[in-house]
């Protein structure tokens, strides 16, 4: 990851990809490498945030379930420490909720990007297939026309051969009658 940035909804909403023109047709999309790198970074951050969130939840559950906290609450000496601890826990909970929202936004963005890429790829594939079918039909039509021309020429040559044989036979017959 080139620039390690703090993951936030602002980064996700402002993330831009380099637009690219499709090779076939006029469709456009995003530079695949950039999208894949970004999705990988988002995935790694999501895993990291999920692990941190899980760890904090475990710590929080341990702290809340630990009966020693109740004993500290009863003593005046520990009330300030408990207050600080509660503030830290509340702050951590707020951060966890923020991370949870960020993860949901990241997942939604990744899903939307995936759907867009799949749709673009399908559209491009359909276009390529359509172009190939059109070109195939055009080639078949040209081949058939050429075949028809050749067959017409063959029939014409066969007719000329027949006429020449007939003329030759007539000439030979006249020559035989004249000399014979």
Radius of gyration: 41 Å
Helix content: over 70%
Mean pLDDT: 80
Can you tell me the overall shape? rod-shaped
The computed structural class is mainly alpha
Order of helices and strands: HEEHHH
* Number of individual domains: 2
Number of H/I helices: 4
Flag low-confidence runs. Answer: none
The fraction of residues assigned to DSSP E strands is under 5%
Q: Give the beta-strand count.
A: 2
N-to-C CA distance: 106 Å
Strand order, biggest sheet?
1-2
Largest sheet: 2 strands, antiparallel
Walk me through what this model shows.
- This protein is mainly alpha-helical and 180 residues long.
- It folds into 2 domains: 1-127; 134-180.
- Helices cover 83% and strands 3% of the residues.
- It contains 4 helices and 2 strands.
- A two-stranded antiparallel ribbon has the order 1-2.
- A hairpin with a 6-residue loop joins strand 1 and strand 2 (28-30).
- Helix 2 packs antiparallel against helix 4 (79-179).
- The model has no long low-confidence stretch (mean pLDDT 80).
Summarize the structure.
By secondary structure, this protein is mainly alpha-helical. The chain is built from 4 helices and 2 strands, in the order αββααα. β1 and β2 (28-30) form a beta hairpin.
């Amino acid at each position: 990851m080139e620039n390690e940035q703090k993951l936030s909804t602002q980064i996700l909403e402002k993330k831009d990809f380099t637009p690219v023109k499709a090779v076939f047709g006029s469709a456009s999309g995003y530079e695949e490498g950039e999208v894949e790198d970004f999705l990988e970074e988002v995935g790694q951050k999501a895993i990291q945030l999920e692990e941190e969130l899980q760890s904090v939840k475990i710590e929080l559950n341990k702290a809340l379930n630990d009966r020693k906290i109740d004993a500290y609450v009863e003593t005046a000496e520990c009330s300030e420490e408990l207050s600080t601890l509660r503030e830290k826990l509340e702050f951590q909970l707020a951060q966890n909720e923020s991370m949870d929202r960020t993860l949901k936004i990241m997942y939604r963005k990744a899903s939307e990007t995936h759907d867009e890429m799949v749709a673009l790829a399908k559209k491009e594939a359909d276009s390529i297939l359509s172009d190939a079918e059109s070109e195939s039909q055009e080639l078949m039509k040209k081949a058939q026309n050429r075949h028809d021309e050749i067959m017409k020429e063959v029939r014409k040559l066969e007719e000329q051969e027949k006429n020449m044989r007939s003329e030759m036979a007539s000439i030979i017959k006249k020559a035989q009658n004249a000399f014979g």
